[in-house]
Design goal:
Layout lengths: L2 H45 L9 H29 L1 H19 L5 H29 L5 H9 L1 H15 L5 H8 L3 H12 L4 H6 L3 H11 L17 H4 L5 H31 L4 H29 L1 H18 L6 H14 L1 H14 L2 H14 L1 H16 L4 H20 L7 H9 L5 H8 L6
Helix pairs in contact: 1-4, 1-5, 1-6, 1-8, 1-12, 2-4, 2-17, 2-18, 3-4, 3-7, 3-8, 4-5, 4-16, 4-17, 5-13, 5-16, 6-13, 12-13, 12-16, 12-17, 12-18, 12-19, 13-14, 13-15, 13-16, 14-15, 14-16, 14-19, 15-16, 16-17
Length: 457
């Protein structure tokens, strides 16, 4: 292949990768928006029964968990079919489902209807979360996957910041309905772009035996695809592959790791405004803490991912879990406002930022045949922690536990997450082995055709 052909392929792939990163990032912005927007309206629901009815603290925690139950169902469903029907179809269906359910939530007038719609919204979110990481893993350069994954999953805390800002700008009465109606925007803005610019994964087509179609698509969009992937030894696909000897133990540990990260993420995003409010801060200041939490996750998650690409994600994830435990413990010392905001930002790195790294770690841990199922398992089983987060926070507050003890409890979860991460066995994917095996046999120009397609740094 001559230099001009390499340059053309490189340009095509940069364009394709940029569209995929943009689509997945915006998709997860609305996931993060949905995650945080409920936390911003909980204080209003608790104090104004004219909105959806008389709501106790325990009921508020349960409502926060309904969406996460839906996420678990959506993620596991996407994992069950995603490795069989492809990434593109799941992404499109998830955007439609999420947008419609989110929009309908704005018109709820009772706790029951609102709870059902929160569950249905979660199903769409789960499908999207479980699909974004496999797409990035199959289109991004191997040595830059953690960075691209972090960019995409940083959409979650960006959405949290967006929800916090909109909540600060709108307050009281029926303003919460506007916040939820805004969540339906992907149906009008994102869906048409996805239909036009999101391709199916050539690696997935190749893994499914559609060799000719895979190579034709790869050539059209400029994605390097050197040939058939090495066969997985047991040839199992999807969740069946997760139960194989190779993946069984790591799958359990990765699920527990994700469970810890998501418990912290959802507990803090749901209850941090209320906890800080009970510590003496008014609503505006309490929402600023949410901004600090998610803002820290955005910056820290991307920076940590660059380290993960150089040293491996496992060590970095262990460190960020420890960082979360330390910062949450220090929040109990009654420090000045500036110091508290800084610690909350660091806690954002160690909780939400950690979960960003977890998705990248998991997506690159599994081969194409099991990738969607592996990410779905961590997003779905991990949601047990997410479901528990609002419930645990609600139970602690209902029991009259002080904010100090709530932070201690969350710090303990972070320590558990660090310990679980340490025991995950190191394992490279079949695809990574194939790339490393093939590189010595290539000329420098051929190797450039495989690896030099990343966007200019």
């Amino acid at each position: 292949m001559n230099t001009s052909q390499h340059a053309r392929i490189s340009r095509q792939h940069r364009t394709t990768l940029r569209w995929i990163v943009a689509i997945c990032t915006i998709t997860l912005v609305f996931d993060g928006y949905d995650l945080v927007v409920y936390g911003t309206v909980v204080p209003d629901f608790l104090r104004d029964p004219s909105q959806i009815g008389h709501l106790s603290v325990a009921q508020a925690g349960a409502l926060g968990s309904y969406a996460l139950m839906g996420v678990m169902v959506g993620a596991l469903t996407a994992g069950a079919v995603g490795d069989h029907i492809g990434r593109r179809r799941i992404m499109i269906a998830g955007i439609i489902w999420f947008s419609v359910a989110m929009g309908l939530s704005a018109f709820a007038t009772s706790i029951t209807v609102f709870g059902v719609l929160r569950f249905l919204t979660g199903i769409g979110v789960g499908a999207l979360v479980a699909t974004a990481a496999p797409l990035i893993a199959e289109f991004a350069p191997p040595h830059r996957r953690n960075v691209y994954n972090a960019i995409v999953y940083s959409g979650v805390p960006v959405g949290g910041v967006l929800a916090s800002i909109m909540a600060l700008l709108t307050s009281g009465g029926d303003s919460w309905r506007t916040l939820f109606l805004f969540g339906a925007a992907p149906l009008l803005v994102l869906l048409p772009v996805t239909l036009l610019h999101l391709p199916e994964s050539p690696k997935w087509l190749l893994a499914r035996g559609q060799t000719e179609r895979a190579h034709l698509l790869a050539e059209r969009i400029g994605v390097p695809l050197s040939g058939p992937t090495r066969a997985v030894e047991d040839k199992k696909v999807g969740f069946a592959a997760l139960a194989s000897r190779r993946y069984a133990l790591p799958t359990v540990l990765l699920g527990l790791m994700s469970c810890s990260g998501l418990l912290l993420t959802y507990a803090l995003n749901t209850w941090l405004p209320e906890i800080m409010g009970r510590s003496g801060f008014d609503k505006s200041y309490a929402l600023v803490f949410l901004l600090a939490l998610n803002g820290g996750a955005i910056i820290g998650g991307v920076l940590a991912s660059r380290t993960a690409d150089r040293t491996g994600p496992q060590r970095v994830i262990t460190s960020t879990f420890v960082l979360a435990a330390v910062s949450l413990t220090l929040l109990t010392l009654g420090l000045p406002l500036g110091a508290l905001l800084a610690l909350v930002a660091v806690a954002g790195i160690g909780t939400i930022g950690t979960q960003v790294l977890v998705y990248g770690f998991v997506a690159n841990y599994y081969d194409t045949q099991a990738r969607a199922a592996g990410v779905a398992w961590c997003a779905g089983f991990g949601r047990l922690g997410g479901i528990g987060g609002p419930l645990v926070g609600g139970a602690l507050i209902s029991a009259g536990v002080s904010p100090h003890h709530a932070f201690y409890a969350f710090a303990g979860v972070a320590v558990l997450g660090a310990l679980v991460t340490l025991f995950v066995p190191r394992q490279s994917t079949v695809e990574e082995d194939a790339v490393s095996d093939s590189l010595p046999d290539r000329s420098p120009a051929d190797a450039a055709g495989v690896l030099a397609y990343e966007p200019t740094r």
